[in-house]
Request: fold
Amino acid sequence: MVTGTQITRVYPVSGPLAGGTVVTIYGSALGNGSDVINVTLAGVIVRSIVSQAFSQCVVISDTATSAHTGVVAVTSATYDQASGSSFEYNPGMRVQWLVVFDVRCSWCSYRPRAKQWTQHRR
Reply:
C-alpha cells in the first residue's frame, strides 16, 4: 500500500437524509482512477461512485436513518484509506437533482445558431 493519502475538502458538506446528493471529495492519493472500492459519508456507504481520480472522487450519497455528522473516508486497493473533512446528513434539506447528458456521436453535430442537432447518416 502507498501512503500519503489525505482528504482536503468535501463539497457540499451536507445533504438530505434521503440521499441523492452528488458529493465531490478532494485530496491526494485517493486512488489511481479505477481502484476506489469503498467510500463512506458520515459512516454511510455511498449509493454509487460516479468518477474517481488521484485527487478527486465524485459520489452520490445514500439514505441515512438519522441526522448526524461524521468523517468522510475513501478506500482504494492501491492507497491507504484516506479520511478527513466531514459530511452532515441534515433532515431539513431536500433532494435537488441535476441531470446532465453528454451523448456524442461521431456522425452528429450541433448547430448553435439554429439551436438544433443534425441527424447522422451512415
Observations:
- The two ends are 49 Å apart (CA to CA).
- The chain is about 0% helix and 50% strand.
